[in-house]
Amino acid sequence: MVKWTDHALAQLRHIHDYIAHDSPFYAKRVSVEIVRKTVGLDDSPYLGRKVPELNEEHIRELASYSYRIIYEIKTSYVEILAVVHKRRDFAPEDLS
């Protein structure tokens, strides 16, 4: 099972709303693609690479468009922790 934290969902909504100012069509396309990338992570949780800033085996990331989808591998599920723009400086505090 893949679960999204409230923080990650809020980030996804913010991304959608930001893009929607210029194009509702692309806002939906980007949002759907980000969510689609997370489908099946519970079957292949090590698909993504380790987050370089953290270098922890159980915290990984996937890329979609200009965004990093950061997730944690738990015992019985995968939890999406954050969705951040690739150009943004990322710090561990961004996961809460």
Structure description:
The mean pLDDT is 94. Helix content is 31%, strand content 27%. The protein has helices at residues 6-20, 24-38, and strands spanning 2-4, 49-50, 59-64, 67-73, 78-85. The protein has a 5-stranded mixed β-sheet with strand order 1-5-4-3-2. Strand 4 (67-73) and strand 5 (78-85) form a beta hairpin. The radius of gyration is 13 Å and the shape is globular. The two termini are 21 Å apart. It has 96 residues and is α+β, with helices and mostly antiparallel strands. Helix 1 packs antiparallel against helix 2 (24-38).
List the helices and strands and how they pair.
Elements: E1 2-4, H1 6-20, H2 24-38, E2 49-50, E3 59-64, E4 67-73, E5 78-85
Parallel strand pairs: 1-5
Antiparallel strand pairs: 2-3, 3-4, 4-5
